User: What shape does this take?
Amino acid sequence: MSSSNKPLIVLSRCLAGENVRYDGSNAYDPFVEKLLKYVDIIPVCPEVEIGLPVPRPKIIVVKENGYRVYQPETNRDLTQPLKDFSYRFLSSLPQIDGFLLKSKSPSCGFSGTKTYKTPEGKGYIGRRKGLFAMTVKEKFPYHPAADELMLKDFYKKYIFLTKLYLFFNYRTMENSQFVKKFEDILTLFSKKGTEKFKRNPIYQNFLRIFSRNIGEKWLNNKIPDFREKILTSPEYKKYIIFPEELINE
Ligand code: SF4
Assistant: This one.
């Protein structure tokens, strides 16, 4: 399952091509197929893990004293089993480098999950996160965490992959070598955080580097025409620390 020379990610089983979705299908994604050559995975399907069958009636997220999950067709409240599984699973992980989960899912979605006012699925209030994904964000606020839809965006994909390889290298390298090798990239996220980490290279300070949510605007501000430069100019190749195949269209 895991080896020391590749990043280790938690991956939704349906994205890995397994037929575990509510309708018995999978969620094959060409980028995930490419990524699988370069990472080790811990596959997870929270809904199957709590004992739901394949196929199964759909479950939904409901905003009611926080967020809950119900299965309208069977009248079941699945909040507690899903929360219990999420905490148990996330607490049992080895040192992990990132999360790639299925979008729009009431369990796995980091984005796009339809959310309602009632357990019967009435009163649509918008798109939020799934319950397992919420627990990931709570327990791993600084780790790279994305869904396959976010990764259609060049900048989100760049940040996800960069963070993934930084976490992986931090886990497997000597601190001083790590700073020397990746200082430019660390500074891209946070100059102040990097200075602090250099003075005191503890894990907590490493994590603090990522407390800022950076994206297209931030990157283009730091390096004008960021996308074009890192893709075409040899001088900027140092900003790509993952297999280049992963960022090329
Ligand atoms: S989105 Fe998550 S819970 Fe749904 S089938 Fe895929 S792995 Fe299972």
Q: What stands out?
A: The two ends are 28 Å apart (CA to CA). The first strand starts at residue 8 and ends at 12.
